[in-house]
């Protein structure tokens, strides 16, 4: 996934030259400080991976719905018919767990891991079963490698929902509809000398585990930053679990004059 990233300027975007003296908090609080951030994707980092999803968080463009897995990081996905489950929002959220299965010829099938009978989490694809399949152990529903019903637990049972994928150079890109990680607004919450407290606001999904990171120039690898979940709280939190679909506000401390803050969605091997 590619895009032209936008510089996140931590001074007023309409400033044409440095201020002779720090502008007042009252003035700064009325200005629009940060509108555009960077474009990125989730990258798997190994067997103990909790990948980070760096969202397209420009408010004027479509949100990023892509996660990317480095297939070489997963032994189970090195060979044909290898299969793994990944938790995006947890099993309590519809379609919060996905199943990735590798077919011959570098073809990958990604389906929802939630059975269409009563929502139980299905098993990984088993190529050694009497009928190679994905099975739900709750009530016996059976699906093929593409998530199509072989044997349903009820009449007219639906197939497992599928996800569009693209595979190139060892990376599997998976489109997750309505993933919708996008920072809508960053505002200056307080100002004292060079010390600033910024409020980042973004739509968060129930069950999502969120972190923040910072990079000064997008060429430097982002580093995790601590934050507060309240306007005046201590900035000592590294991640937060979202309990409902809602706008999430996080506060960070910054002395930087420019740079990029990135929202991260942690994804776990299920």
Automatic annotation (TrEMBL):
Keywords: 2Fe-2S, Disulfide bond, Iron, Iron-sulfur, Metal-binding. Residues 93-174 form the Rieske domain. CDD domains: Rieske (cd03467). One of its GO terms (molecular function) is 2 iron, 2 sulfur cluster binding. InterPro entries: Rieske_2Fe-2S, Rieske_2Fe-2S_sf, Rieske_Fe-S_prot. The keyword Calcium does not apply. The keyword Oxidoreductase does not apply. PANTHER family: CYTOCHROME B-C1 COMPLEX SUBUNIT RIESKE, MITOCHONDRIAL. This is Rieske [2Fe-2S] domain-containing protein.
